[in-house]
Amino acid sequence: MMNKQHTMTRLKALIASMTLLxxxxxxxxxxxxxxxxxxxxxxxxxxxxxxxLDDRSAIxxxxxxxxxxxxxxxxxxxYLVHSSSSVGAASELKGSMPWxxxxxxxxxxxxxxxxxxxGITYLFNSAPMDLFAEIVPILDVTPSTEFxxxxxxxxxxxxx
Length: 160
Prior knowledge:
The chain is an alpha+beta fold. The protein contains 2 helices and 9 strands; from the N terminus they run H-H-E-E-E-E-E-E-E-E-E.
């Protein structure tokens, strides 16, 4: 029971921290294009958030449960660059399918890893939503060096 309570306390603290971080970063971009909030399913599975910084770059993150081992909770954040076919304001990209790559970090229990996401996203023409698929090589660097691979599908709704 203590372990479950400890995990819930950490989850609440991370959610609050991520929310404050997202609200403090790039307020002009969030006001212009909205914040995408949704679900990510696969490895990991949880809540996903994304917002555009400019015409081609965005920050995304997730608070999620890893199904791969006994250290289930993880949080990650990535800086993403979208393909040149996506040049233009994020609000003008609806109906397009840019691919993306990026770099980020993951915290999973006492481990820290570097993430290199590769993916594709579909920005719906008729709704403020996106659908994405990604594969992410991860190199855990602490407490020991270890390679991992994540892969997931997700759907986000953008709030303006």
